Amino acid sequence: MRRRHFLTLWSLLFAWRATAKSSATSSLTPPQAEGPFYPVVPIPSRSNMIINARGLIGKPMTLHGQVRNRQGQPLHGVKVEIWQCDGAGIYDHPQQANHASFDSNFAGFGSVKTDSKGQYAFQTLVPVPYNNRPPHIHVKLWQKDRELLTTQLYLKGQTGNEWWGGEEREQLQIDIVQGGEYSQASFDFVVNA
Asked: pTM for this structure?
């Protein structure tokens, strides 16, 4: 009798963990504000935002990941746009104070389309603080002309809660792994599509 209860409990626990894991992977990536410095020109198709590594202010980083739907299926052909400030905390935007000082060795924004496995990759910068904001990268996802998501990515341990007086906010995180010439970061997006 005890063995049967034990096996029943283990099978229920296993089923619960599988369901919890499945629902965790299907959670939608939360949206966040676009911010005031969305590029005023169309964002060109470019994955390498490092124009000249020699004079670059800041540290290069490869950002990669996958875009998939709630069922976990990879989404092909989704346009992933990113924009961020340069290594000195200046955006390439005409309304940005000190706009003329934007680092000409960095593009500031770019876009790529996901491949057949839903994967994307950028050569960009490790984000730095801007004004009173924690380091972040802005992201917008498009499926043809339909906007799927606008959000922001933050560095692990610098997600904003510590910047905004401990107020709990749902934050995204990218984990930086040092190595070689570029740091590595990854983030997977889950969207309704």
From this structure: 0.82
- Output the six-digit token pair for 175: 């984990």
Q: Which residues of 19-58 are buried (b: 16+ CB within 10 A; e: fewer)?
A: eeeeeeeeeebeebeebebebeeebeeebebbeeeeebbb
What is the tens place of the pLDDT at every residue in 75-110?
999 999 999 999 999 999 999 999 999 999 999 999
For the chain, strand residue ranges (E) read: 60-69, 79-83, 109-113, 119-125, 136-143, 146-155, 173-177, 183-186, 189-191
Task: Write the CA distances from 158 to 29, 36, 135, integer angstroms.
Answer: 18, 21, 7
CB 96 within 8 A of CB 103: no
Contact yes or no for 118/68 (Cβ under 8 A): yes
With 0-12 / 13-18 / 19 or more C-beta atoms within 10 angstroms meaning exposed / middle / buried, residue 88 is middle
Q: How far apart are CA 119 and CA 74, in angstroms?
A: 8
Dist. CA 26–CA 21, nearest whole Å: 9
CA–CA dist 103, 58 (Å, integer): 10
